């Protein structure tokens, strides 16, 4: 049975809490002391993470982290409620941060405050907004900032094979990070071809399905397409491997093979390739093998 993997926001941030709080506040003197309970009566989600932090200037305070797959227009009110509930529960001032993972439709404007007025009374809550697609992938890998490694492909400048390989290498270099590889593969699927991703790294759909971001994508109707793409990519990878094996057998037995035969092999289905593997080992000549190729 596959061991349950925790790849939610709290797990990611816990990998390097000091680096995280310094990044979201832009203050190198901030230190994280504790990840707190983010359960409230009206708000409770895996993407909400509260950190108790401190700095020489501000003493102890809360950093409220909201990792949102896509920004929605109800977020300002949610952030206002989140701050009020956290400050009441822990009796500390709060620094709220909204981290948007994927860009919203072009018709949606991202705002960084809640601002309302009713009968002459005003309410306002500011919060910091970080859009991951604006964050430099090179900075994340070089700093380094381990909680953001799984998001490298969707960061600014991160949607390339070389950056994906760098992120995979960073995850595999640390045993505490290697379980995040399926999540990296998942976000890579938004910008790179699935067969290429499969050549570089491993997939684990069981682990992916436990990710809160995968569940949100599922609600958007996109996850099914990704899964289908993965299945197609696996089949394509197997087909490519079988084509290569068949051609190697023919070359070993009959030296070079004509281009027209090679082209016919490229057009074969997986089932046909598997049948012809045995044929290639038993025929006495290349002409005899050619007679077994589909017309």
Q: Which regions have little confidence, pLDDT < 50, spanning 5+ residues?
A: 1-5
What is the average per-residue confidence, as pLDDT, rounded to a whole number?
Answer: 82
Radius of gyration from the alpha-carbon trace, in angstroms: 26 Å
- Along the chain, the helix and strand elements come as HHEEEHEEEEHHHHHHHHHH
Strand content: 15-25%
- Helix count equals 13
Count all strands and give the number. 7
Percent range of helical residues: 40-55%
N/C terminus separation = 46 Å
**Which class of secondary structure composition applies to the elements?**
alpha/beta
Q: List the strand order in the largest sheet.
A: 1-2-3-4-7
User: Which overall shape is indicated by the principal axes computed on the Cα atoms?
Assistant: elongated
Main beta sheet: 5 strands, mixed
């Amino acid at each position: 049975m596959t061991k349950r993997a925790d790849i939610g926001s709290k797990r990611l941030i816990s990998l390097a809490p000091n680096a995280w709080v310094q990044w979201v506040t832009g203050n190198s003197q901030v230190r994280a002391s504790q990840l707190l309970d983010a359960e409230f009566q009206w708000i409770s989600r895996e993407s909400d993470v509260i950190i108790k932090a401190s700095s020489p200037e501000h003493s102890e305070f809360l950093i409220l982290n909201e990792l949102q797959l896509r920004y929605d227009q109800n977020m300002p009110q949610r952030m206002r409620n989140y701050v009020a509930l956290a400050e009441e529960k822990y009796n500390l001032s709060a620094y709220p941060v909204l981290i948007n993972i994927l860009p919203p439709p072009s018709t949606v404007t991202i705002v960084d405050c809640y601002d309302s007025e009713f009968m002459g009374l005003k309410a306002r809550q500011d919060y910091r907004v970080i859009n991951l697609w604006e964050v430099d992938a090179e900075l994340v890998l070089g700093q380094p900032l381990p909680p953001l490694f799984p998001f490298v492909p969707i960061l600014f400048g991160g949607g390339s094979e070389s950056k994906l390989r760098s992120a995979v290498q960073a995850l595999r270099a640390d045993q505490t990070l290697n379980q995040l590889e399926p999540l990296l593969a998942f976000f890579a699927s938004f910008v790179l071809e699935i067969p290429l991703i499969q050549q570089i790294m491993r997939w684990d759909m069981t682990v992916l399905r436990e990710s809160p971001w995968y569940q949100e994508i599922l609600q958007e109707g996109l996850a099914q397409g990704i899964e289908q793409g993965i299945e197609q990519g696996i089949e394509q990878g197997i087909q490519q491997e079988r084509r290569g094996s068949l051609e190697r057998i023919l070359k070993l037995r009959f030296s070079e093979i004509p281009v027209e035969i090679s082209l016919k092999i490229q057009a074969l289905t997986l089932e046909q390739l598997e049948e012809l593997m045995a044929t290639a080992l038993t025929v006495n000549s290349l002409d005899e093998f050619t007679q077994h190729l589909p017309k």
